[in-house]
Each structure stands twice: as C-alpha cells, then as structure tokens.
Design brief:
Elements: H1 2-28, H2 34-39, H3 45-54, H4 61-73, H5 87-118, H6 122-136, H7 139-153, H8 168-175, H9 178-215, H10 218-225, H11 230-267, H12 273-280, H13 286-314
Helix pairs in contact: 1-13, 5-6, 5-9, 5-11, 6-9, 7-9, 8-9, 9-11, 10-11, 11-12, 11-13, 12-13
InterPro entries: BPD_transp_1_N, MetI-like, MetI-like_sf
Subcellular location: Cell membrane
Main location: membrane
Length: 320
C-alpha cells in the first residue's frame, strides 16, 4: 500500500510539473507585451526596460521557467494586469465562493447519482428520466429554465448573487448563524443543481452498471443461499465490491465541475473564479488566466490522486 501511495503521489507531482510547464510556455509566447500591459501603453522605454529586468523576461527560457516554478511554489503567481493586485490575492477572494458552490454541487451529484443507481421503483425510473433529460440540456439552458421556474414564476429561489463573501456556508454553520446559512443555501441551490445534473448521471450510470454486475456474481448468490437478508447482502458483499468505478467517475466529475463553473457562475453572477476568469480573458490578463488554470489543474490532479488512494483503501487489490 505504501508503495502504491508513493507511486501515485510521484505521478501527481510529475503531472503538476507538466501542467506548469505548459502554462508557462503558453504565457511566454502569448501575443502582446506583458510589461506594457501592466505599466500601460504610455510607459516610458526606461520604465519598460526596468520592469522587464524585474520580471526576469530577458533571462534564458529555462531560467525564466525555474523562476516561475519557484515563485509558484511559494504562492506567487504574478500580478494581475487588470486588477493590479497579486493573482493569489484575487484567487483568495474569489476561490471560497467557487469551492462552496462545487462542494454543494458535488454532494447533490453523489446523492442524485446514488438514487439513479439504486432505486428500482417507479420513483427511481422517474428520477432517472428527469436526470437524463436535464443532462442532455446545455448548462446555460438548464440554468435559464431554473431561473424562470424557481425565481420568476414560483419565487422560491434567488436568481443571482451569493449573499455574502468568503466561506459563507461553512462560517455560518460553524457559528450557528442559521439565518445567514439559510440565505446562503437558498442562493447556492439553483446553480449547484445545474452544475450537478450531468455529473450525477455519469456517476449513477457507472455505479448502476457496477452494482448490476456484482449482484450477479457467485459470492452474492452464495450469500443469499446462506439466508442473509437483501440489506445485509448489499451492505457486506455488493456495495464495497461495486463502489470502485463509481469513486473513479466521481473524482473525474469533481474535476470537471471546477472546469464547468465558468458558464454557471456567469449566468448566476456568482462571485467565484469562473467569473474572475471570464473577466480576465477579454482584458488579455495572462497572469490571472495562467493562475486560474494552474489552480484548477492542481485541484483536478489532487482530487483524482485522493480518489485513487480512497479506492485502494476500499479495495486493496488495486494497490497490488
């Protein structure tokens, strides 16, 4: 097991290095002069030359990459051309909103995926049908439909905004401020559901197929022959042997959720890194774009590494 964890961690580090290298190359060879973008078009040649030296832009390529990598490890992702603040500062302001949105959406996806996979009654068929229809719709269309139904017609949920800053839900839950928690939950439900529908179907399909395959296995028939109840058979012999593929898909979908927040956050005016990225692209704010890319890529890599480790703990055969 220790060898598997070491190999998986090493592979994650290598992928992170490749990611930072790709982002660095794209940033270096992007059109435009980053110094003039930062200082402004009217900056004097002397000021531009001094800033180029300060940013190590005249150093050899490998030297520049080493400087970029060491700075990134220390938490320095450069200065945003648009906000003129450190990118890390901007990410610190916008990332909590995205994290809470994705966490709530992921919980929705796990719950809906489990319902999709396990319920065999008419209600389960209805849930699967609704999820399949929702998953086929583009996120912006699903979002607009939710806004029209739950905000414009029913008035149950707000259409935009978040209701606060920072880790709003976590902080209000810890402090017991239930009014703030309830308001924050109202704001997050609709965008989280839109973000969760397609991942829920993917997780549910994989888990359902794995459960059906395991239910037909010899050891399950033997357990039933011994007189165990269906609940005992499912809990002891089916679920643990079936959960691996579902965990893998859940890890992939969690990474995809962080990539999909750009569209959802724009529609719902959610103050997260998706909106920050969308505002940075038209301004050619390359440090901000690169910073968001590195953070999202790192989240995706770390998430899948953790999922692989959880799979190995659930089924030690994977670590062999």
């Amino acid at each position: 097991m220790i060898g598997f964890l070491t190999r998986r961690t090493g592979a994650a580090i290598i992928v992170l290095l490749v990611l930072t290298g790709a982002v660095f190359v794209l940033q270096q060879y992007s059109p435009g002069d980053p110094v003039k973008a930062y200082l402004g078009a009217n900056a004097s040649p002397a000021a531009v030359a001094a800033e180029r030296v300060s940013l190590h832009l005249d150093d050899p390529l490998l030297s520049r990459y080493w400087h970029y990598l060491t700075q990134a490890i220390r938490g320095d992702l450069g200065i945003s051309f648009r906000t003129h603040r450190p990118v890390v500062t901007d990410l610190g302001a916008f990332l909590p909103a995205t994290v809470e949105l994705v966490v709530v959406a992921f919980l929705f996806a796990l719950l809906l995926g489990a319902l999709f996979a396990t319920i065999r009654t008419l209600a389960g068929t209805l849930v699967r049908g609704i999820l399949l229809v929702g998953a086929t719709a583009p996120p912006f269309l699903l979002a607009l439909g939710g806004i029209i139904l739950f905000y414009a017609h029913l008035g149950w949920l707000p259409a935009t905004g978040r209701g606060g800053d920072g880790f709003l839900l976590a902080h209000s839950l810890v402090t017991g401020d239930w009014a703030v928690f309830g308001a924050g939950l109202q704001h997050v439900v609709l965008p989280a559901f839109v973000l969760a529908v397609a991942p829920a179907v993917s997780i549910g399909r994989i888990l359902r197929a794995s459960l059906q395959q395991t239910l037909g296995a010899d050891h399950v028939r033997t357990a039933r022959a011994k007189g165990l109840t269906e609940a005992a058979v499912f809990g002891r012999h089916v679920l643990r042997n079936s959960i691996g593929p579902g965990l893998s898909m859940a890890g992939l979908q969690l990474g995809f959720m962080f990539a999909g927040v750009v569209v959802v956050e724009q529609i719902f005016s959610w103050p997260g890194i998706g909106n920050y990225l969308a505002e940075s692209i038209p301004a050619a704010d390359y440090p901000a774009i690169a910073g968001v890319t590195v953070v999202l890529g790192a989240v995706y890599i770390v998430t899948n590494t953790v999922v692989d480790m959880i799979q190995a703990l659930a089924d030690p055969r994977i670590a062999l």
